[in-house]
Amino acid sequence: MTGVKGVLGAVVAAPLGWLARLLDTPLRLWQRLAGQNGMVAFFLLPNMAIFTVFVLLPLVINIAYSMTTGAALFLPERTYVGAAQFERLLRCTDYTDLMTCQEDQFWIALRNTGTFVVLQVSLLIVAATITALILNRALRALSFWRAVFFFPVLLSPVVVGLIWRWILDRNGVLNAALVGMGMDPVNWLLERNYAFSAAIGVTIWAHLGFFALILLAGLQAIPRDLYEAAEMDGTRPARVFWRITLPLLMPNMLVVIVLALIRAVQVFDEAYVLTGGGPGTATLFLTQYIYEVGFASLLKNPGLAAAASILMGGVLIVLTLLQLALGKRNERRGKLK
Amino acid sequence: MKNTMIALALGASLMGTTALAGDVRLMWYSDGVEGEVMKDLVARFNAENPGINVILDEVAYKVVQEQLQIQLEAGSGPDIARVTNIKTLAPHWLDLTPHLSDAEYWRTNFGAHADWMREDGSDAITGFMTQLTLTGGYANATLFEQAGVALPGEGATWDDWVNAADQVAKSQGTAAAFAIDRSGHRISGPNVSYGANYIGADGLPAPVDDGTKAFAAKLVAWVEGGQMLRDTWVAASGSTYRAAADDFINAAIPFYYSGSWQIANLSTKIGDGFDWVATGSPCGTAGCSGLAGGAALVAVKYTQNAPEVAKVMEYFAREDIVKEFSERTLFLPAHAGVAAAGGMNWQTEDKNVGAALDAYVAAAGDILPGAGALPAWKWATPYYGALVNRISQVMAGELTLDDAYARIDQDITEAVAAAQ
Questions:
Q1: A288 shares contact with chain B (CB less than 8 Å)
Q2: What domain count does chain B have?
Q3: From A196, which residue of chain B is nearest by alpha-carbon distance?
Q4: Are A276 and B235 an interchain contact pair (Cβ–Cβ within 8 Å)?
Q5: Pairing of strands B23-28, B53-58
Q6: For residue B155, how many other CB atoms are within 10 A of its CB?
Q7: A303 contacts B234? CB cut-off 8 A
Q8: What ipTM score was computed for the predicted complex, to two decimals?
Q9: What is the pLDDT confidence band of residue B2, given thresholds at 50, 70 and 90?
Q10: B330 or B248: whose pLDDT is higher?
Q11: For labelling alongside B365, which of A125, A162, B51, B121 has CA 20 to 30 A away?
Q12: Which chain A positions have a beta carbon within 8 Å of B411's beta carbon?
């Protein structure tokens, strides 16, 4: 064993040592010239280059696209129109009637996304909290149950959408079961409210395990002696939850809320496969609107899609900043304790 | 999402730019069995032409629709592609004329559809139609017979067909009487049959007229009345394409309006499950028109191997190869010589197929001028998109018909303005 280790060590360490010796002199020279800050920048450069090419540059290009129009796909061949695409997206004669908006489907998608975010995130938080509380108890086959709740997280969103479409379709499993029980089948994906509820339910099913796991970690970090003290005082379980569990779970809860909000704003894959945005535009969400306008529609308009994505990006940036602020606040509180 | 699309575009671009000298990349999608036939033909070509290596990239139709344009705009892409969006992308096609050994052969045999795949005013030879298609209906003859309802005969209107299919549906307990694919292309033949004209005097899109309004109003009424299957049009948004073939195959509807390209699909999947017939297009007030179309094999002008591409195209355009391809795929041939010679030996034992193909050949004579002009009209695609997007919103109860007509006009005007 030692022999093998020795050989491996020699094979791996020798070239690395040789490389280190080779770089030592130029790096020392560079440090002397650039100073400590220069060295930090030097080591950050590879990551920054990747970030620039794959994130920053596309973002800048996207902003540039949002200020152009035309049939051409490539930027230099497109016509500059300033903020016209944003104006087109935001122009309505009566903001209480979305049908008066020039881009009515953008506003419909915005309204649907807003409604979805409020309902889905609220229900998801409640469901994840209940699941975490149950999984935190000394259940029989606890690992099995944790795996059951976490399993959907491992599935591809497209697979999730397909599975539920097969279940909820007119000829799907659920209707077959209803008919088998002598009941009338229901058009789950053709009625507006059912389809919207299905989109909410399926996305909750798909992501519940992930958020429950974060909350479970928070629950397990709460000191047991607090519960023992409450028990000795004869405190009712509901009071224990509101006065001990929830306040101490709040740091994790805030992370869950912000992450769930961001994911809900970005909803696309599962809902698109499940309902295709229908019936009508009942489940048309912002990301699908952007995808359709920019790529899939027979009326492609990359400039308009870019402008819509920037507006959506603005919302996501606000949510991300909120997450960062909450994270820092939690960190400060942790240090104070 | 955005990063994924960029990665896909870059990946696709790379795929299109790695051709070596002598390599000819052919992007191909399949509706039915034509991919298998093409593989065989490509293998034979490669065996007969050792200096040229045709690489068949089989892709989903969605890839051709959504990614090919990005590749072409980037000046890359395959050397040859099978496409349906032939007119809109015409600026990217290669003029094969200087590379062809007999350009006259192409003009004689494929000239009737050459305008479909070249820019207005051009006389370039850019490719040929791998098949001609025509929109039309199919009836489940077994269900009609079981219901004791006679199949409507020649000259039957859309109302006649829907009423007859409705009687069958009620008698046999099917999900609905009929369905039409969710596609603006599919309803355009019927629109023209009711007098619609999409093309204005200046060649730009005309406002929605009474012909389009007449058939659109019928569609909406049929959805509300339960005669038309809601699933196909209502259960999606935007201009998403949805076919209702599976509902016909599963005998959930006795009448289905789609097109000739479904013949092989129906034959394969229905087998001897039930008897079916092609009905041609039901009549409106102006005629009984379907809409012609099809897929074309076109050469891409960014190829580095134009002479080799021309040689490959010449092989696939050969009369004997076109005949074999059509016979094996059950597609209507677009080659004038093959069509005129007749005597097609369709490679099927399904007795429904020959009759269906004959029915489509007969229905080709009913195409009205307004429909005949659409395949070569560059604004057809945005027009189709606006129609399907807005009419399905009416079906879902989100818009009134009048609002939808105004929106269709607005969408098309904006699309034209953006494109110009």
A1: yes
A2: 2
A3: B235
A4: yes
A5: parallel
A6: 9
A7: no
A8: 0.79
A9: very low
A10: B248
A11: B121
A12: 299
